Amino acid sequence: MDELGESTHVTGQTPDTNSVLPYETPQPPVAWDGRPPMHRLASSALTLGVASFLLSYLAGLGAILGVVALAHGALALRDIGSNPEAFRGREPAVVGIIFGSLAILIGAVFAAIFIGDLIR
After folding, report:
1. Range of 70's domain?
2. How many CB atoms lie within 10 A of CB 42?
3. Which residue among 1, 25, 45, 95 is the one 20 to 30 A from 81 at the CA level?
4. CA 64 to chain centre
5. Phi and psi at residue 89, in whole multiples of 5°?
6. Does some domain include residue 87?
7. 8-25 pLDDT, tens per residue?
């Protein structure tokens, strides 16, 4: 604009396409250290696996959470294995599977003891 407030744009003139854009091109999400983000199912497998192990003395609840931890861990390992550049979290998924499996076994033992006591 000039000093009178009128536009000085000349019609027919094309804007400079080599100028810097007023915004940055969006980048894919990356953790602060440059590693790919943790897979959500891997972290939930770890959380559910530990919770199921701690609650495994409650036969039903520990076993149910253990099955969910197994499923989440297996799905996370499948996704991480098919695209390792996009996700990380293999270790938490494996630990969640291990704790979930232990919770299922412990829950089954407690359920067998409970059922055995009911039958007597």
Report:
1. 40-119
2. 26
3. 25
4. 20
5. 125, 20
6. yes
7. 555 555 555 555 556 666
